[in-house]
Queue: 2 jobs
Job 1
Amino acid sequence: MRRLRKRRWPWLVLLVCAALLPWASWPLRHARLVWSALEYRREPATMTVPVEGVGPKQLASTWHAPRSGGRRHEGADVFAKKGTPVVSAVDGHVWRVGEDRLGGNVVWVLGEGHTLYYYAHLDQFADGLAVGQRVRRGTTLGLVGNTGNARTTPSHLHFGMYRIGWRGIRAVDPVPRLQRLATR
Ligand SMILES: [Zn+2]
């Protein structure tokens, strides 16, 4: 009697697909972001401290300092007088302009080093700033303020960097990068 051979491979394919799904789903769900980030795959050769008149030596890292609600600080706070221009740290384009609960008035720039750059607590946006607009290193994005959860603190820019990869977005400490790549 001929032995019936069970075909096992459909299960194998299913298993492999299931294993790959968590890996593949992020870039699929954020295809536009991942695709746009490819334009900026080169690392920046230079950066600018994103608050006018502040040099890299004046920055202090508060990376992962505890914050309310069990959060950790994922960025750099650059203190300056309200109304001081906030400038783009690198070349890129405006990804989002808007308001959020913690950040207040915020600008997201997708730029060099396949990274999203986050500028928060702005008092005002630069005139006519719009999504899709190209910015250069040094282009004014807005003015330092204390909107969002900074309303009880001295005015400052919260500057965040989020690297985009195939597995997702990962926050990185901007201070060592600024101190290495910013000149003034
Ligand atoms: Zn902050």
Job 2
Amino acid sequence: MNETVRTGGCMCGAVRYRVVGEPLWVNYCHCADCRRSSAAPVSVFAGVREDQFTVEQGEATHYASSPGVVRSFCATCGTPLTYQSSKFPGEVHVLIGSFDEPRNFTPTGHVLTAEQLPWLHISDDLPRE
Ligand SMILES: [Zn+2]
Ligand SMILES: [Zn+2]
């Protein structure tokens, strides 16, 4: 069986990664920490198992943004790439905008909507928590 392979990387091309197989979920995260680290009003992540995710070229820089949380980004161009937390052992949450073909994902839900910006309106019927 051929598994889907999705590739991505940072804006300057120094860091390239691949994800093999389908994501566990694709969520909008409305939390203030993700907002700050991506500098975007909302962040969308594909959650995958660590063994699905491989950096194939270059090396991301890691930053502990809060206890138990590590985010990675490209030190050259600043593109944020991943989120990992001790709350989600064995998972890598990959920022969807860094994939080469982000249109090939289907969001499955919204999390931390208590922190959602009041002027941001996304009209879908996905589960919200
Ligand atoms: Zn880069
Ligand atoms: Zn978040």
